[in-house]
Amino acid sequence: MAGGFRRLALSSFLLVGLGTAAHAAEPIKVKVFVGAMFEIGKNTGDRAGEFQNWYERYWQASEPIAVKGAPNPVHCNADGVCGAVLGMGKVSSSASMQAILLNPQFDLSQAYFIISGVAGTPPSRGTIGEVNWASWVVDYDLGHRWAPEENKAGEPTFMPRKGYEAVRLFQMNPALVNWAMKLTADTPLKDSDSAKAYRQRYPQEAARRAPFVGTGTHMTGDTFFHGPGMSEQAQYIAKLYGADDYVITEMEAAAITLVIKRSLGSDRVMSLRGAVNFDQGNPNETTLQHLDPKPGETAGGFAETVENVATVGARMTDHIVAHWDQWQAGVPAP
């Protein structure tokens, strides 16, 4: 009898232990995932890159979660907000995102994704310090491109290549973009004296504006293109594909969106960028001078812009988490 009791007790103990192990292995249910592209130094306490302001807001008390195939760990808080530094460029960032999506430690099936970082903007459309939600994301590279001197004057030097239609253009969920603007358009944004002075070098009204929250097409390319010719080409591609005006140049959003779309769909994907430079010089400088400015001749406003991005993105993040019963099943009606 005593032996039977011991066997019963041991069986119960094992069952409880197995249940605890199974519970411990349950994946983290992610509500919002924030993907930044780079950080400068540490995640906190030094000069901030794209991730630090997010980290200090949400993950100071978190334990890093290593993910095979991703160069940096994922951080999560108790509210289901997770984030990571994915790496710069289309290949690195999308490879990291794929590794995280496939990792069994996370349940991302109902997550909203914020692709967050800095960017450039044409002076005819934006300004230093602005924050922009993508209405469309376009891949800048999928086609044929040749030197202007090998073409008729004034004609485009880019031709789309057939077969890329499904991977070169993504419309962000209009209902989600509308929510983002509704919740963040009036966010107070920081500015800097150096950025204010730098803007005055440009004659365009948009370039001289104070920082604001807006929307438009984000152009994804691995090349840091500069100059009015390349800017015009980006606008040409955006219009050729039927997207909105090109307002942001960045390096990752199209690739990351494609990876998420193939696994989960793209209805919950957002691209959020802050402009830290113009995509061309002012009328008094050449493109090379703009690319390689003298000391003290840079745009300024970087620290303020990365903080602006996180401040705007946090408004969206906090609303989703606070009203998860309304957002869990999908983007709610306005």
From TrEMBL:
Gene3D superfamilies (alphabetical): Nucleoside phosphorylase domain
A GO term, aspect molecular function: catalytic activity
Highest taxon listed in the record's lineage: Bacteria
Keyword annotations of the record: Signal
Pfam families the record matches: NUP
Coiled coil regions in record: none
Gene Ontology biological-process entries: nucleoside metabolic process; transmembrane transport
Cited InterPro entries: Nucleoside_phosphorylase_sf, Pur_nuclsid_perm
Signal peptide: 1-24
UniProt name for this protein: Purine nucleoside permease
Origin species: Azospirillum doebereinerae
Source taxonomy: Bacteria, Pseudomonadati, Pseudomonadota, Alphaproteobacteria, Rhodospirillales
